[in-house]
Amino acid sequence: MDLSRPKRRKDVAAVFEYWRSLHQDEFLTPHSGLREWIEIEKRLTQDGCTLDQLRRAIDGIHADDWEDRARNLELFHVVKSLAAVQRFVRIADGDAGEDSSSRRKTDWREDPDLLKIDTELAAEHGLTLEEYRKQCGDP
To answer: Which residues of the chain have pLDDT under 70?
Structure first.
C-alpha cells in the first residue's frame, strides 16, 4: 500500500487517537520516533493493514483476558507485528482459536519480536537494551 506521507501521518495519528480514546490517562505524545509510531507505519505501508483493521486489533487486545493484562496493556503489543495485528483482530471478531490467552506466555519482555525491535532502536540511539527500555518507561 503506497500512502502519501501526509496521509500516512494522519492514519498513524488516528490509531493513536483511537487508543487514547480508550486510555485517557495515556502519557505518550505521538511522534515519529516512538516505537509504536514506527510499527504502525510498517503495518500500514509494508503489510497493507487498514486503519479499520488496526482499530479492530485494539478492540481485540481489550477483549483478550490474558493473565497480567493490566501491567502489559500497551499499544505496542497490538502493532509490533502483522501476526500480532491478525491475532488481535481474530480475538475482536470472536475467533481466538489457538490465540487463547492461556496459551501465551505472560513475560512480554522476552517476546522475540519485541526484543528484536527494542534492540535495533536501542542501537540507533546508542543505548543498551536496558537503558532504552528504561527510557521508554518499561518497569
So the answer is: 1-3, 67-71, 96-111, 113-114, 135-139
* Spatial distance between the Cα atoms of 49 and 52, rounded to a whole number of angstroms: 8
- Alpha helix positions (H), the chain: 5-22, 35-45, 51-63, 69-72, 75-79, 82-92, 112-124, 129-135
pTM for the whole structure: 0.68
Dig out the grid coordinates for 76 from the structure: 505496542
Task: Pull the grid cell for residue 36.
Answer: 509504536
Q: Where are the domains of the chain?
A: 5-105, 107-139
Each as own residue / partner, the long-range contacts of residues 107-116 (CB below 8 Å, 24 or more positions apart, any chain) are 108/72, 108/77, 109/133, 109/138, 111/80, 113/80, 113/81, 113/83, 113/84, 114/76, 114/80
